Amino acid sequence: MADRPEVWLRGPVEGVPALLQPVAHALLQAREDAAALAAELPASKLWERPGGVASAGFHLQHLDGVLDRMLTYARGEALTDRQFASLRAEGAPDDALTPAALADAFTARVDAALAQLRATDPVTLTEPRGVGRKGLPSTVLGLLVHAAEHSQRHVGQLLVTVRVLTAAG
């Protein structure tokens, strides 16, 4: 991958409205980076918390979960019981999970996000959307941008955690 330019330098993502191209680029970059980092991480280190920071497993679960939640709010929907259960489970060690399986789940979630971006009418981007049980104010665009930047933030934290864990042997 090192010989390829970053996603934002590869041109437009087919079918995604122009105003949402930066969101698509950031999500695709996060997907590529998370998959590469998961491939480097031994399963035995997935739930380790070096220095007390969040585990790589948490970041991989959270990438999938938070993107799912932000897309739900952007559609103007409430979270489901399944989504709340997933939120509660984020970071709970589960030896049945592997770095590859968690990266695959995030890959699938990014694919769903791209489908939603393609289906988003730019006219709706400024429509208000409530976030959380309190219905805190946002917009369709605000939620989509936050989904992308939040994903990038957790990939950065995942990178540092994986580097520390793999450097430690």
Automatic annotation (TrEMBL):
Keyword Hydrolase: yes
Entry keywords, A to Z: Hydrolase
Residues annotated as domain DinB-like: 27-158
Gene3D superfamilies on file: dinb family like domain
GO MF annotation: an example: hydrolase activity
Pfam families: DinB_2 (PF12867)
Coiled coil: none
Descriptive protein name: Metal-dependent hydrolase
Organism: Rubrivirga marina
